[in-house]
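Appendix C: a fully annotated inverse folding record. The material below is reproduced so that readers can follow the format used throughout the book. The structure is listed first as tokens, followed by the designed sequence.
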């Protein structure tokens, strides 16, 4: 008689803060942070493009630093503080200057890449309040956009720097 091995998938408890709210949940050890954010917390603003660290669409802030959420497991985010694109402005009256600038300078077309760009640029502009074009292009060199040709994104970052400087 054939014996069938039963496989039980272990779930690990995690606790983390996302956009100012504390979550306690249980996750499979293999669950990616990007999938945890999208499917367990329903924060679908974090986009998944390549799922192997190339496109930057899944970028979030983890303890203030931009990381690719498709490259780490949810369990590695235990006891961390995360900010996703939903942590920026949620409606037109409440946009962050970076979001306003992308809108005004046509820094997006389909918008698929935009959350990753915004989460990459937020700490960049905080550390570099007056970047030149070369610094901006280097900062976004890890984010892929198939629509804009990047020039409008660069223009949006310059505009955002001006807006953030004027408070
Ligand atoms: S989906 Fe994470 S880098 Fe492309
Ligand atoms: S706006 Fe479409 S991929 Fe960037």
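Designed amino acids, in order:
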């Amino acid at each position: 008689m054939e014996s069938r091995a039963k496989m039980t998938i272990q779930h690990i408890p995690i606790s983390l803060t996302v956009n100012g709210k504390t979550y306690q949940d249980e996750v499979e050890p293999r669950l990616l942070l990007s999938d945890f954010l999208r499917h367990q917390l329903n924060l679908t603003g974090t986009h998944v493009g390549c799922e192997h660290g190339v496109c930057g669409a899944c970028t979030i802030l983890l303890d203030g630093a931009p990381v690719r959420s498709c490259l780490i497991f949810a369990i590695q985010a235990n006891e961390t503080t995360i900010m996703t694109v939903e942590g920026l402005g949620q409606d037109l009256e409440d946009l962050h200057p970076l979001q306003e600038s992308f809108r005004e300078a046509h820094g997006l077309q389909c918008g698929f890449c935009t959350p990753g760009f915004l989460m990459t640029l937020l700490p960049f502009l905080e550390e570099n309040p007056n970047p030149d074009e070369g610094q901006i292009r280097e900062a976004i060199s890890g984010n892929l956009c198939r629509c804009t040709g990047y020039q409008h994104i660069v223009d949006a970052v310059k505009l955002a720097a001006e807006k953030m400087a004027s408070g």
